[in-house]
Design brief:
The structure holds two protein chains of two kinds. By secondary structure, chain A is mainly beta. In chain A, 0% of the residues lie in helices and 49% in strands. In chain A, the strands form two sheets. In chain A, strands 2, 4, 5, 6, 9, 10 and 11 form a seven-stranded mixed sheet that branches. Chain A has a four-stranded antiparallel sheet with strand order 1-3-8-7, with no helix packed on it. In chain A, a hairpin with a 2-residue loop joins strand 5 and strand 6. The termini of chain B are far apart. In chain B, strand 7 and strand 8 form a beta hairpin. Classes of the chains: A mainly beta, B mainly beta.
């Protein structure tokens, strides 16, 4: 089955620790995205990558870092510099085209709680 | 001010009711208008999208876009308990590379 997997589903972290969230896709998509969702709010873009070895900051990149060494993988590190990291994190991918709509597929999410 | 504003809800309706979900936006560059459904503790899934203005129908769901008023709607006819979820509107420009999301409206359909 093609899709996006995120692990772990639930993650607990102590203040001051860095933590890495995993995102893997086997859809052969070039573009991948990380969003943050807080209760009662929509999705806010953290980082996105249109191609391997390249990524751009989204609207709320401070305190986060990413890498894109492989097409299938786009891990997100939540650093100790992120002031309020408790949230639901969603990874997505899409196959970009020169024109026209390309559906964005989402993973099941990781719920991060800072203790 | 947010680029995309969504009616906050929550909404609670009886089974069989017609539901109207709405968003307004301020960015004239938006060309693609999407509706996502998100069940509790799950990732969103695309319900429908519309390019530019007009209506689009898919079964019990109808999406409307009025670019002159910068207003989009999703109508659900004959609502079912399985429609209970959070509905997110989203919009993007012609490249469709990045989407801007509304805050979502939580819908409960009671049997």
């Amino acid at each position: 089955d093609g899709g996006i997997t995120q692990s772990p589903k639930y993650l607990f972290r102590k203040e001051g620790q860095n933590v890495t969230l995993s995102c893997e896709q086997n859809l052969n998509h070039d573009a991948m995205y990380w969003y943050r969702q807080d209760p009662g709010q929509g999705l806010r873009l953290i980082y996105y990558s249109q191609i391997v070895n390249d990524f751009q900051k989204g609207d709320i990149a401070e305190g986060y870092s990413v890498s894109r060494e492989k097409k299938e993988s786009f891990p997100l590190t939540v650093t100790s510099a992120q002031k309020n990291p408790t949230a639901f994190y969603l990874c997505a991918s899409r196959s970009p085209g020169l024109a026209g709509f390309m559906e964005q597929f989402f993973g099941p999410g990781t719920r991060l709680t800072v203790l | 001010q947010k680029e995309v504003e969504q009616d906050p809800g929550p909404l609670s309706v009886p089974e069989g009711a017609i539901v109207s979900l709405n968003c307004t936006y301020s960015n004239s560059a938006f060309q693609y208008f999407m509706w996502y459904r998100q069940y509790s503790r799950k990732g969103p899934e695309l319900l429908m999208y519309t390019y530019s203005s007009g209506n689009k129908e898919d079964g019990r769901f109808t999406a409307q876009v009025d670019k002159s008023s910068k207003y989009i709607s999703l109508f659900i006819r004959d609502s079912q308990p399985s429609d209970s979820a959070t509905y997110l509107c989203a919009m993007s420009g012609t490249n469709a590379g990045k989407s801007t999301f509304g805050d979502g409206t939580t819908l409960t359909v009671k049997p």
